[in-house]
Amino acid sequence: MWSFLLKQDIAVDFSYEKYIKLKSWYIREYKNLILIYLNKENSKKYLDRFIKKEGKRFLPKEIEVEAFVLYYYNLYKQIGTEIEKEIV
What we know:
By secondary structure, the chain is of the alpha+beta class. It contains three helices and four strands.
């Protein structure tokens, strides 16, 4: 099992079993999205399962994922426009 620690209490599991589970989830979700498009429904119907609108922006519904997104967005605002002067 390949796993590394992102935070003290969060570990990412790269085991084959988890890979198969994730693959199945992706296939199921793509099928759900395809059905929405085939039925000519608004894609918002699909997205509303995962995101919420706060003001002018969309954020994940899951609190942990929202914290992750906001952390990296703030990090991007701090260093995202910096250009590395030296190419190694």
